[in-house]
From TrEMBL:
It catalyses: N(1)-(5-phospho-beta-D-ribosyl)glycinamide + (6R)-10-formyltetrahydrofolate = N(2)-formyl-N(1)-(5-phospho-beta-D-ribosyl)glycinamide + (6S)-5,6,7,8-tetrahydrofolate + H(+). GO terms for biological process: 'de novo' IMP biosynthetic process. It comes from Gossypium lobatum. Keywords: Purine biosynthesis, Transferase. This is phosphoribosylglycinamide formyltransferase 1. Residues 3-150 form the Formyl transferase N-terminal domain. PANTHER family: PHOSPHORIBOSYLGLYCINAMIDE FORMYLTRANSFERASE (PTHR43369:SF2). GO terms for cellular component: chloroplast. GO terms for molecular function: phosphoribosylglycinamide formyltransferase activity.
Amino acid sequence: MAACGGAQYARDKGIPVILFPKTKDEPDGLSPDDLVKVLREFEVDFILLAGYLKLIPAELIRAYSRSIFNIHPSLLPSFGGKGYYGMKVHKAVIASGARYSGATIHFVDEHYDTGRILAQKIVPVLANDTAEELAARVLREEHKLYVEVTTALCEDRVVWREDGVPLIQSKENPEEYY
């Protein structure tokens, strides 16, 4: 949205703001093809989402294969997919009796939460947890994990196994992966 806090912050700092998608509420928004064109003009290498809840257009997925990431507040593939977002995830984790939850950073594909997993952090589910308490602990780990993954991306430490599984190379020991 043109009026959201992040967009205003960017404008205040002289950072270009791109609106997507074009809708009746955002008539200045771009079409998927125009979005890809503008991102290429800005020489964008990666697209980092933060809990984005809509499907990404196929045009963008194709143009940025292995370059779009999102974060999810559970250990995917559990408690992911359409309808699993926000507090719904944490309530479902607690109701299931799972002993662990956590955060997952995954590549984005054409479906909800099914892209290759890049990194995860485990958070224990405590015996008397409320969804709000669990959500707060998971969110703290999400923030740490996103910084770690973004750093690895910027340092070109994301590598791909022959079978298509992405790994993060250790900064301290390049022969180790996590």
